[in-house]
Write a structure and sequence with these properties.
356 residues, alpha+beta, seven-stranded mixed beta sheet, 26% strand, globular
Amino acid sequence: MTKRDIPIIARLFSKTFRSHKSEVAPDLEGYLETVFFGSPHYRPEHGSIVYDSAAGNVASAILALPMEFTVHGRPIIAKVLCAFMADGKEGAAGAARLARQMRAARQDLCFSDNASPVSADHWVAGGGVVLPVQSLEWQRTFRPLAAGAIAWSRYVPLLRSPGVLRLLGLFDGLLRRGRRSLIPAAAAGCRTISASPDEFFRCAGPMMERFPIRPVWSKPEFDWLVGVAALNQGLGSLQYRTVIAEDGRVIGAFLFFGKTGREANVLNLLCAAGHEFDVTGQMFAHLDAEGYAQANGMAQPFLMNAISRQRWLSFKHRGYFCLVTRHAEIKDATLRNEIYFGGLASESWSRLLTDF
């Protein structure tokens, strides 16, 4: 894909994924250019691919974002597949040809965190695997009436109005007095403090070293990722926190979108090995104290035991997390849960999932 393809890609995206098929959001073209041509690792061979029809128009496309990963100390460029689109019969034929380019034999590492059931079948047929845990989203409720209103507001917009949420907050306050399990317990001796992006960055690297396959997050790439993630203001402001143990050590860090009084979307939750319960408990206690109605985030195998101990917790399917790779060592590590994905190392922050 080249920059001159952006206008037709914007129209194809709107036709494929949005109900207003003839309309293109005013800033969609600019966003596509920023995300798919702005990464420090962008090269044409690492980017999106398109199939041209006989008439010379783009009939199908795969939007892909390059990210640097390390595999047992060896750097590779992985691809996050963000959208697969086709238009008409010719587009369907082109989509089949594009899909063959994403087969395991051709890719160092290629993944998607929101594949449909049909797409997941294609991934498996192409030699890929589905990660069942990362395909789930956890949700921890703190204020159930407000959380219910938020969930139903997509159908009844009035429910998201400040007045309604304030009224429901009063009833939630009464409910929380009788149901103390709604209030998560903080970890003994721990505290949570606000952090800068640089402070989160300094914590994240050492905490991911337990995973032999993980995102590199060089400083230029990290700065670019949080910059484009922050554009998704529909999810709230992008915020950073660190968790401090009683002896002053930083034992955890988390990054989230927050709309106070509504919900916190946790992108990344990281911790020092052995402190999963402390950091998870402290994160939930902090988000509750800040007044959020609920918190949600991608499930991670190394955190499942700690997350699952929470009360008022539920899981739902968020879309299939799929990957393909031609390297046996990556596939084996994936099956052993020795690989880190999610948050900034995924598409969870993208406006293409929540906007336009």
